[in-house]
Structure formats: C-alpha cells, structure tokens
Specification:
The complex is a heterotrimer of chains A (418), B (259) and C (368).
Chain A: H1 14-35, E1 40-43, H2 50-53, E2 58-61, H3 64-71, H4 75-84, H5 93-103, H6 109-112, E3 120-124, H7 134-142, E4 146-149, H8 162-184, H9 189-213, H10 222-228, H11 230-234, H12 239-258, E5 268-273, H13 282-286, E6 292-297, H14 317-326, H15 336-347, E7 352-357, H16 365-379, E8 383-387, H17 398-417
Parallel strand pairs in A: 1-2, 1-3, 3-4, 5-6, 5-7, 7-8
Chain B: E1 2-8, E2 12-19, E3 22-30, H1 35-50, E4 59-63, E5 75-76, H2 79-90, E6 96-100, E7 105-110, E8 116-121, H3 130-140, H4 147-152, H5 165-177, H6 182-203, E9 209-213, H7 220-230, E10 233-235, H8 243-254
Parallel strand pairs in B: 1-4, 4-5, 6-9, 9-10
Antiparallel strand pairs in B: 1-2, 2-3, 6-7, 7-8
Helix pairs in contact in B: 2-8, 3-5, 6-7
Chain C: H1 3-12, H2 15-23, E1 28-32, H3 38-43, E2 47-50, H4 71-81, E3 90-94, H5 98-110, E4 116-119, H6 128-149, H7 155-177, H8 188-200, H9 203-217, E5 229-234, H10 241-248, E6 252-256, H11 262-265, H12 275-284, H13 296-308, E7 313-319, H14 323-337, E8 342-347, H15 354-367
Parallel strand pairs in C: 1-2, 1-3, 3-4, 5-6, 5-7, 7-8
C-alpha cells in the first residue's frame, strides 16, 4: 500500500482568499434557491454560463463540484459509490465522483452544504465528447428533463464558417427554448446581452492578469491561479466576477512593481499540463525546495479563458458564445491547443512542462505527445509525462509522484548548468 | 580527490570509492531491515578494500530509494542522474539506459554527451521489476538466480497474460497444475516482464545502443527476450548493480567538497 | 468451392481485393466508422475500404498515445506507423469519440504518407439544424473526394451508388433474418465474418456472392443449437474470437448490435429526391454507435432485436477505454436486466486475458 501524504496548497494572495469565499457563497446561494423552490440546473463546465443568466437560473457544474469534494479528500468515497453503481474505472473520475455524489444514500456534512438535486439537466459534448452521456444516468435516476447541446469539433482553426456558428447558435437557442418550456421562465435577452458584455470585461481582465503572471519572478503561481480561475467557470456574465478580477489585477500589479515573487529565489518555471492533484495541492509547492515554481496550469483554461475578447459582441450574444465555444482550445482536432501551449511556454518563460495523465481521461492524454514534441521543437523545453489522477485520491502515490518531479527537476537544473 | 557514491536500493546497498575518478574499491551488500546499518557496513568494507579511512573522502553523494537513511553528511541525487552519469562514464556515446531494480524500472534516453533527454519511471505496479520475478520464482520453486538460464531452455512459447503479480501467480500455479513444463512457464514470465519494460521504453522512444543495469540485468533469459522485442543493441556491464553508485561517486567529484 | 468458403477466404485475406484493384489503377480510401458515407467515395470511382484492427499487441503507438487511450484506435495508429496502410490513397475518419479525434491529430502530425480527413458529423439525430450543418459538411467531403479522384460526382451516379449499397444492406439483412429460426443456419462467428467480408469487398461483388450464399445456407443448420440464444453488444468487435468464445461455451449467438455486423445493414436509406439529403437523413435518423443522442434510439433497437430474435441473454463487451459504450452500458444494463439477463464484460481489443473471460461467460451461460 502506497503512502498517502496530502497537504493543502499554499496560497499567497489576498484576493484568491476572497474568491474562495465567493465560491462557497455561490453554492450556499444555490442551496437557498432550491429551498425557495427555484429551479436548479445541472450542466457541464463548458456550457456557456451566460445562457443561464438569461433565465436567472442556478447551476451546478459537473466538473466543479468534484474539485471541492476532492480538496477535502472526500473524492475517493464518492467515486467508489459510482463504481458500485456499475460505472467502470475507465469512466472519467470527475464524472464518477459527481455521479457518486448524485446517487449516494448519505452525504457527508461538507457536501451536504452545497449539493442540491436537479430540476433539469443540460448536457453537452464539449470538451469531453465521450463523457457526454454520464448525465443520462443522473436524468434517469432523478427523473428530470434532459437536453443535449451538440458542439461540432473544430476542424477549421480560428476561421469558423458561418454554418457551424449557425448550428451551435441553434443548439443554444434550442436549450433556451427547452428550459422555458420546462418552467424556467422566458428568456431575458437584455440580460443575456449584459452577460456577454460582462464576460468580455472578464476575459480582458484575465488577459491582463496573465500578463502580470508572465513577470519574472512570478507574482502568482498555479495554486492561487486555479482558485483565481473560478470566476471564469461560475461567474462569467456577473459583476461580481469582474470586481474580483479587478481586485486581483491590482494586487498582482503591486507585486510585479515591487518585484515580489512567490518564492525568494526563482530558478525554474514550470507549466503543469493535465489535472493537478486537488486533494494534495501541496505537491505543487513541493518543487519550491529546488527554487522551482509552477507558474501556470493548463487546466485553468478548461474553464474557457483562452480566446480573443474581440469575438464577444453583446449585440449578437448567442453567436458570440457559439464562436467562443468552437474556438475553445480544448475542442479537439484543431491545432489550437498545441499552438496555445507553445505560446504559453514562450510568454511565461517556462523551463519545463510537467504532463500528468489521469488514466480515466479520454481528452487530455491525447495531447501529451503532440504538445511535448511541439514545445521541444520550438524552444528546446522538455516535458516529463507520468501518471497522476488529480481527483481519485485512491490512485495517488506520493513517493512515485515526487520521484518523477525530483528526477525531472534535477535533469533541468543539470542542463541549466551546462 | 577521493569521492564516494552510495546507492541504497530496497534489496542491495552499493558503495563505490573513486580517486580522481579512478576506481579504488566497491562493495555490494544486502540492505536488510536496517538501511543505516547496511550503509555503514558496506562503507567500512569498501574503505578497508581501498586501504583508506572515512576522513579521506572529500565529497560524497547518495542515491537510491533509501538515500535519506545514509548516516553521513552527503549530497543527494536521483537515480536518473546517477545512472546516466555512471553509464556515460563507462560507455560514452550510448543512447540510453534501462535500469531494472528490485522495486523500480527506469528508462532514460540521453545524448552523445550523456545529457538526459527524457526518462520514464514505472508506475507503482511492480510487475516489471525484480520483486515480481522473485514472487514467480517462489511459485515455481526455483532459485531466483537460476530463472533466466532455465527460461532459455524452454521448448515452447507460453503466454502469461496477467500483468498484476497477484493474478500472474495464480495463473502460473494453474499452469503448474496443468503440467506445463517449468522452463516454458519461466520463458512466458520473462516475456511478460520484457514486454512491459519494452512498453515503458517505447513511451520515450528509446532505441539504439542501450546499457541495461541494475540487479536484474544479470538475468540472461530476460536480456535475451528484451533484445528480441526491442531490436536494440543491449550492453550489460560486468557488475550492472554498481553503476548507479559509480555515477553518484562521479557526481561527488563535480560537486562541492563536504567540509 | 462453396460460396461460404469463398467469403471466408476473403475475410482471411481482405487485402487481396485491394491489391487486385490497385493493380488496375483504382484508388482506395480507408475509412473508419459507419458515419463515413461509403456511397460518396464509391460514386467518385474509388473503393471505400474499412480499416479494421488486428489482435497484435501495440508497440510504436505507445509512445504517441498514452496507454489509457482506446486500444482499437492505438492499434489502427500502430498499423499506420508501421506502413500497413500505405496502400491507401486517403483515410477518412468521422467524429465519434475523443479517441478518434486524437487519431486525426496524431495521423496528420506523424503519418505523412496518407492524407487524413475528418468528417464532422453531428452527434444529434432528428434535429433540423443538425441536418443543415451536416449537409454543409457532406458537400465539403464530396468536394474533397472529387478532387482526390479527379471524378465529378453527379446526382445520378450518387443515386446509383446508394442503390448499390442499399442492396448490400438488404441482402445481408435477408441472410440475417434466417438467424431467427429455432436452429439458425449460420453461427454468430460466421455471421460476423460474412458481414466483415461484405463490408470490405466491392459491393458489386458482394451482392452477387450474397445472393448465392442466401440460397446456399437456406437448408443449412448449425450443430449445437440447444444452448441459450445470445445477443452480443458493445464497442467495436472486429475479430470473431470473442463470438467463438461464447459459442464454445455453449451459447448460440443469434444477433448482435455491432457496427461490424448487424448495425451495418439494419437500416436502408429512405426515398429522397436529393441523394445528398438521403445520406444526411440516413446517418442522422439511425443510431449505429453509442456516441449518438438521443440514446433511446439505440435502446429501442436492442429491444427490437431481443424480441425479434428470441434472445435469452445479452453479453455486453466493453472494449477497454471505449468511453461512449462504457457510459451507456451502465445506464442500459439496469433497464435491460429487468427483462433479460445481462453479462457486462471489459475486454482488451488485443484479446489478452481470455482465460478469465471464459470462466465468466461459462458461468453466465450455465445460469441461463
């Protein structure tokens, strides 16, 4: 039996602590809404958040709740529950965890603060096509209406043809109509436009935050970054998200001006590719003993933080959201992801990429080799790849994970010396 | 300058002493339950062989799973660095290393100058390592050191499909009951391990001239199949288990002095 | 030689067809999955060739795909790296799962010798906006096939190709209907071989052979038909070994839900003045894979087959890391089990660990 040593990640910013509070407040709000009889939606993380604002609906995202459960080291239990329901270990750990939460006969007090049953389920195949059917089980179990939004894959790069935008716009429109028909009220188009306009502000601020993080030494590592990315998932289209990002930006700018890094002597900058261990974020701080910092984690972008803000046009809200979804870097077959990582490695002055493989993931592991080759070819920056399930604590092996990081960093330091 | 390298593996502890990068002495002994004691003992023997005393050592690097148990003041390095260092010192210009130890299997790809290009460690499953072989030896009632030779005398190809050592053991036991010849089963076991190591090597595109080190490198049966599967030229040093300690001692020569 | 023997010969060495045709200057387009309309490739004067896998262990592909990627896809990529598909003039994939999406990326990046095309088929059926989108995609695909072949595709030639393929589907279905008998004339493993050989052959030839075959097997009866009647479902199975395993254990495999077998020929195109629209409707009004929404379509098909073929038990073969099927199996299993016993198994595409599988299949059949 492998040893399981878990430590929480060390955060260094004031604003991220505020964002943590906002996360709890959000889920507390969902619970209250449910008690007041308001409809609750379950959906996947890349369903455009803004369409739910147009209906003033409360949403729980399948990818987000497991992170919170995982951070409390409770994910293993709920994953086990799903496995007992007949879900294979090949099924994404996030989906197993969420489904376990959904069907568990008893929930622990922590989860119970946030968890509410759905009134309607909106599924989609973006970013994970193969996982798009996990909600079917939940829809059967809770006997609630189910709608599927089909997102085409991006075979076009940045130049999305009109007929594809039209298709996805139609899918979003279909989802809105479906929700209206099932008692979620009428669509408030002004609200939708406002939400898109606020989303644009949010992404502009996020881009500036990213610029600050490119500074050497970096004022914010990925332990803070992953919390900071939360407004991108849950708060697009809200004033709260914008306010939090404004504060974060101010804090970061101050740090950059003063030359404050998150560690004293920054020798190596790492990019994390794949799901970090949410139950043991301390692993990301572990590398600090070598003077290494995990500057950025690619998963911050799963929330949809990597697109050109100019595509957001409040006068064409659904079309803007369609465009945003289709050019999303995790939408496979386009070279967007590989090119994006190439740019990130350059812009963030990355010395090495840590690629971790969650065995139950159908999406990210497929990018590992192309990213590794592209980054090496571009800038000679090496990538190490090893198995690490960021959510299923039962799979975690502290010694092996650290041995991989030790070896990689020693090799990086040796090559820096020559 | 006299330097020392200590490699504390889970089964064996290795010490190498160098003077100006030339070998003075080396010692291999069992790690046992008390790694600290084992290191002391191996060091004493190595010092005696070299005819020097501990205070003559100017710099010391330790490596291996038990490196933290080393009772002397020393720098630490990972096996990846030490393996590569040792191998490229003895065999300059090789393309990579396969290190098969008791609990670990590492593959390393390096360039002509001995710089690491890529590496892969085995996952927590032990099925490509020495412990797996030991378990199979026990199930078949043969001595671990004889397994390789016996497997070369096999007359037919048997497939051992279970990768997990627990399932593999029950699969092997059922073969024994079916009166499958021991040598054939042994060949099947070796093939199963070799294909696992080969898969690990494939992940980093390891090819060309490679050095196989670690205690299991002495198993000729495994090396034979590995050669066949990988299609690479495999070199096995005379004493494959001490290469890591040698690398550590060489690293010690590059680093700062201990006092 | 009987027609059955001829077809088995084609199954054993399918590339002989390609060699003969290539020698005559015909272009061959590899494709993966039933959502690629063979009719369009055929109408352009080329041979659509289904790329099936082999049960060989994966070697080179393991340094590109992580070991948790679908083994079938890794197998295809491995064969591609090895140059085994170099005879193809192109490879067409369709949007069915993340593994195939990555296959497109990997193929384009690392295998330069054969151009790869991704057909962006929607995963939503019976949806007007999906029909419209798919029509655009198919026009692009048609153009690509025209450019590749140098031949224009007219409505008339496409109509002709559709009719030809419909005839293949009709004949295979007619043959398959015979399996409804108390004692079927062909075994499950034979049925899979016939179907896969028919998929691989030029349809002009297939149709002639199938006509003879139906006549030939009409009076045939398989031995050992006393066991329970089994339906096999699950991910792609392109090797009869698993079916043989079930039959060796005493099961009588009478039907399946496989894209290599009954799903290939169960449906016909519907009459439509516009042949391109006929294909649009054909692909978006039938469910041949667990990737399609809504799932009810596939569930209804399973029910229809269970009733029609008097199925006593269902064996669900989930190929490791085939995510779409794994999800549906968890959802469907409970519902199916209310009326018909289900055995759900995880299998390697390379068919390792058959010993353990055998024991479980045997226990299931004994229970029935």
């Amino acid at each position: 039996m492998a040893t399981k040593v878990t430590t929480p990640g060390k955060k260094s910013l004031e604003t991220t602590a505020e964002i943590s509070k906002a996360i709890k407040a959000y889920y507390g709000g969902v619970k209250v809404a449910k008690e007041e009889g308001k409809p609750i939606i379950w959906s996947y993380g890349l369903t455009p958040r803004e369409i739910f604002h147009a209906l003033d609906a409360h949403v729980i995202y399948l990818e987000h709740l497991p992170l919170m459960v995982g951070a409390k080291q409770l994910s293993g239990h709920y994953i086990q529950v799903a496995e007992e329901e007949g879900f294979s270990r090949d099924v994404c750990a996030f989906h197993r965890c969420f489904l376990g939460c959904a069907v568990a006969s008893e929930r622990d007090p922590y989860l119970d603060q946030f968890f509410v049953d759905p009134d309607i389920i909106i599924a989609t195949n973006l970013p994970c096509m193969s996982e798009s059917k996990s909600f079917l089980y939940a829809a059967d179990y809770h006997n609630v209406p189910y709608y599927f939004i089909d997102a085409p894959i991006n075979t076009w790069g940045q130049d999305i043809p009109d007929y594809a935008i039209e298709y996805y716009t139609g899918q979003l429109k279909g989802a809105l109509d479906f929700m209206s028909e099932h008692g979620l009220g009428t669509v408030d188009w002004d609200k939708l436009k406002e939400a898109v306009s606020l989303s644009k502000k949010l992404i502009l601020l996020w881009n500036e935050i990213d610029k600050c993080r490119q500074a050497v030494p970096t004022p914010m590592g990925t332990v803070d970054g992953l919390t900071a990315a939360y407004p991108l998932i849950q708060l697009p289209g809200t004033q709260l998200g914008v306010t939090l990002f404004e504060r974060l930006l101010k804090e970061l700018k101050g740090k950059v001006e003063r030359g404050e890094g998150i560690i004293d002597d920054e020798k190596l900058r790492l990019l994390w590719f794949g799901v970090p261990p949410f139950y043991n974020m301390g692993l990301l701080n572990y590398v600090e003993k070598y003077g290494a910092v995990v500057v950025k984690s690619m998963i911050e972008y799963i929330a949809g933080g990597a697109y050109d803000p100019s595509i957001m046009n409040p006068d064409k809200p659904l079309e803007s959201l369609a465009y945003k979804a289709l050019v999303d870097i995790v939408n496979p077959t386009s070279e967007n992801m590989v090119n994006f990582i190439r740019r990130t490695v350059k812009d963030f002055h990355i010395d090495g990429v840590v690629g971790v493989v969650k065995r139950s993931c159908g999406l990210l592991p497929g990018y590992m080799r192309p990213v590794k080759d592209a980054v090496y070819e571009d800038s000679g920056v090496p990538t190490t790849i090893f198995d690490l399930d960021g959510l299923d604590i039962r799979e975690y092996d502290d010694a092996t994970s650290k041995a991989n990081l030790d070896s990689f960093i020693e090799a990086l330091l040796a090559s820096k010396r020559r | 300058m006299i330097t020392a390298g200590i490699d504390v593996g889970s089964l064996a502890t290795k010490v190498v002493l160098l003077n100006e990068n030339q070998l003075m002495s080396h010692e291999v002994s069992g790690t046992g339950v008390d790694a600290t004691e084992a290191v002391k003992k191996a060091m004493d023997t190595a010092l005696e062989k070299a005819g020097i005393s501990f205070k003559d050592i100017e710099s010391l690097v330790s490596t291996g799973a038990g490196k933290k148990k080393v009772p002397f003041e020393s720098a630490q390095a990972t096996e990846i660095i030490c393996d590569t260092k040792g191998v490229s010192h003895v065999y300059p210009g090789v393309n990579g290393v396969i290190d098969i130890g008791a609990e670990n299997c590492r593959v390393i790809k390096c360039d002509q100058e001995g710089n690491i290009i890529d590496f892969a460690l085995n996952d927590k499953c032990a099925s490509g390592t020495g412990i797996f072989l030991d378990a199979m030896a026990k199930a078949l009632r043969v001595k671990p050191e004889e397994m390789g030779e016996l497997s070369l005398q096999a007359t037919q190809d048997i497939e051992v499909t279970s990768m997990c050592s627990v399932f593999a053991e029950s699969e092997v036991v059922s073969m024994i009951h079916r009166m499958v010849p021991k040598n054939d089963i042994l060949k099947g076991i070796h093939r199963s391990i070799a294909s696992r190591i080969c898969g690990q090597a494939n992940r980093i595109l390891l090819e060309g001239q490679l050095v196989v080190m670690g205690g299991i490198a002495q198993n000729l049966g495994l090396i034979t199949i590995l050669k066949e599967l990988m299609g690479s030229e495999l070199i096995v040093p005379d004493e494959p288990e001490v290469i890591g300690a040698l690398g550590a001692a060489l690293l010690a020569g590059e680093g700062e002095k201990k006092k | 030689m009987t027609t059955m023997e001829r077809i088995m010969g084609i199954f054993d060495d399918p590339e002989q067809i390609v060699r003969d045709l290539k020698a005559k200057g015909k272009k061959v387009i590899g494709y993966r999955c039933l959502y690629v309309p063979e009719e369009i490739i055929h109408a352009a004067g080329m041979l659509p060739y289904s790329t099936f896998g082999t049960p060989e262990p994966i070697t080179k592909a393991d340094s590109y795909f992580q070991p948790c990627a679908c083994e079938f896809v890794r197998n295809i990529f491995d064969l591609g790296l090895d140059g085994k598909f170099d005879f193809l003039d192109g490879l067409v994939l369709s949007n069915t799962c993340d593994a195939v999406r990555h296959l497109k990326n990997m193929w384009t990046t690392y295998i330069g010798s054969v151009p790869c095309y991704m057909l962006n088929n929607p995963q939503k059926m019976y949806d007007e906006s999906a029909f419209k989108f798919y029509r655009h995609e198919l026009e692009g695909f048609k153009k690509t096939m025209e450019d590749l072949s140098g031949n224009k595709i007219s409505d008339a030639s496409l109509r002709k190709s559709i009719d030809l393929y419909d005839e293949t589907r009709r004949l295979l279905k007619e043959l398959n209907e015979l399996r409804k008998r108390d004692v079927p004339p062909i075994s499950g493993a034979e049925a899979l071989r016939i179907s896969m050989a028919s998929i691989l052959m030029p349809k002009e030839e297939t149709n002639a052979l199938l006509l003879q075959l139906i006549d030939e097997v009409k009076t045939r009866e398989i031995k050992d038909a006393d066991g329970p009647r089994i339906m096999v479902t699950g991910s792609i199975i392109d090797n009869p070994t698993l079916i043989e395993l079930v039959e060796d254990m005493g099961g009588v495999v009478v039907a399946d839900d496989l894209c290599t077998s009954m799903k290939y020929f169960w449906y016909q195109t519907k009459p439509n003045e516009d042949p391109m629209d006929a294909i649009v409707r054909f692909n978006l009004e039938r469910s041949v894979c667990a990737c399609m929404h809504p799932s009810e379509e596939r569930y209804d098909f399973l029910q229809e087959v269970i009733g029609g073929f008097a199925v006593d038990g269902i064996i669900y073969f989930n190929v490791k890391y085939c995510h779409p099927f794994v999800y549906e199996s968890a959802t469907f299993r409970k519902k199916l089990e209310e009326e018909t016993p289900v055995l759900a198994l995880e299998v390697d595409h390379s068919l390792s660990g058959l010993g353990q599988l055998k024991t479980r299949v045997q226990a299931f059949i004994e229970m029935l």
